[in-house]
Specification:
Strand content: 15-25%
Largest sheet: 8 strands, mixed
Distance between the termini: 72 Å
Helix content: 25-40%
Shape: globular
Radius of gyration: 22 Å
Mean pLDDT: 94
Low-confidence stretches: 1-9
Number of domains: 2
CATH class of the largest domain: Alpha Beta
CATH architecture of the largest domain: 2-Layer Sandwich
Number of strands: 13
């Protein structure tokens, strides 16, 4: 028997998305502002993207999530105006072209795309009473948060605009954590009502309430105070000889395309059927009875994911806070990652071929654990890998993608970073 020819796949070296130093990011936004608007801004503000460690599609179900802020940020140079005009430009939108609008045309039904996440925030801040009226302003945006990657570039933009308008208007609501909860609510309103993306608050909370060196345990049970709704959890993989690798699959990711909203509607209908305010009220002990009471298999699988995912968040946090430390529990933390991914893939059905290949390949290449992160339907996966092996794991993923004809992925490594703030 003659030997069969070996098919060779030439895969390029991994491409890495690096975070800009804050001074560089601020200067980029300031330069764009000067070039487009011909004067200096009042200041520059920034907000981070986020990676969610575990707790997916639980925020709008009253559950628990554990995000951490990325060092990759969106930078907004901004000035307030004394008329009724709004002028916006972005290095990432429409080639940096200047968009012009008016303060009375920034609400629901008025805006799409980039202006919805900027002008829409101004409308929401006034609607929620954070600002006394919709402000006239001009802003220039530049960002190193990978766009469309499931790392919350949209919330990074909206929250950067929120802190900028709050600060520039002299309100300083965001000076306290309770005030930042109000900014979160306004940003969620802007995304829901103006941009048409039914996000649940995880991304905006991570951008506004995170702390360096920590993950942020968020509790979305209705009626909690600001203090009760968030707790910072130490998260230092480096001390345990580990690294968090983010794999941007480059598969298209879009929150406003109907799939996300469909999952949310199914969960809300299931909660109504079960007679509970949110699915957070379904306890693990009561899960079997709840599943039996639901009318179809799709609803049962969605509910099972939410209830078991909340359990996984609780266990993950307990391991991080255990006296033995993170290193002693790395294997179980990794197993929770894998269980979360399987639940999202099989019960919630929000994974895709690229995410599954990224997860399976990372595990085969030595990752301690891996899972998709974010809303799904594309976007990114994350993997806990032994420090120093991230290049090897990334190369394995690049090769696996090339073998299947997928677009080349992009990678970044991250450490827990700080929240939205003024840069200069």
């Amino acid at each position: 028997m003659s030997e069969q020819p070996v098919t060779r796949v030439d895969a390029a070296e991994p491409q890495w998305a690096t975070a800009w130093p804050p001074a560089e990011g601020a200067e980029r936004a300031r330069t764009l502002f000067r070039d487009q608007l011909d004067h200096e801004p009042d200041g520059v503000w920034s907000a981070p993207g986020r990676v969610n460690l575990i707790g997916e599609h639980t925020d709008y179900n009253g559950g628990l999530c554990l995000p951490t802020a990325l060092p990759h940020r969106t930078y907004v140079a901004l000035s307030v105006r004394d008329d009724d005009r709004v002028l916006l430009t972005s290095a990432q939108a429409d080639g940096g072209a200047l968009w012009e609008g008016r303060t009375d045309r920034l609400g629901p039904g008025d805006l799409q795309g980039f202006p919805a996440y900027t002008g829409g925030v101004a409308w929401a801040l006034a609607h929620d009473g954070v600002l006394p009226a919709v402000p006239a302003f001009e802003a220039a945006v530049d960002a190193c948060v990978p766009f469309g990657s499931g790392l919350s570039s949209s919330a990074s933009l909206s929250t950067a605009v929120a802190v900028a308008l709050d600060d520039a208007a002299g309100e300083s609501v965001g000076a306290s954590d309770a005030g930042r909860v109000r900014l979160v609510e306004a940003c969620v309103r802007a995304e829901n009502d103006v941009a048409g993306a039914p996000t649940g608050g995880l991304d905006q909370s991570a951008a506004l309430r995170s702390a360096e060196g920590h993950a942020l345990l968020l509790d979305f049970r209705p009626g909690l105070s600001a203090e009760e709704s968030a707790r910072r959890v130490p998260f230092d993989l480096a001390a345990a000889g580990l690294e968090l690798l983010v794999i941007d699959t480059r598969a298209p990711h879009e929150n406003a395309d109907g799939q996300y909203a469909q999952r949310r509607a199914t969960c809300e209908a299931a909660a109504a059927t079960l007679g509970v305010a949110t699915l957070r009220d379904v306890t693990p002990d009561g899960l079997d009875a709840a599943l039996a009471a639901l009318p179809d298999d799709v609803a049962r699988r969605r509910v099972r994911h939410v209830v078991t995912e909340v359990q996984r968040v609780e266990r993950f946090v307990a391991l991080l806070e255990s006296p033995e430390g993170l290193a002693a529990h790395a294997d179980e933390l990794g197993a929770l990652f894998v269980a979360s991914h399987r639940s999202l893939r099989d019960d919630y059905e929000v994974s895709c071929a690229e995410l599954d290949v990224a997860v399976d390949t990372a595990l085969a290449a030595g990752a301690v654990g891996a899972r998709m992160t974010g809303g799904g339907f594309g976007g990114s996966a994350i993997a806990i890998v032994p420090a120093g092996t991230e290049q090897d794991v990334a190369r394995a993923v690049v090769r696996a993608f090339a073998e299947r004809g997928f677009a080349a992925p992009q990678f970044l490594t991250t450490e827990p970073s700080g929240p939205a703030h003024r840069e200069s």
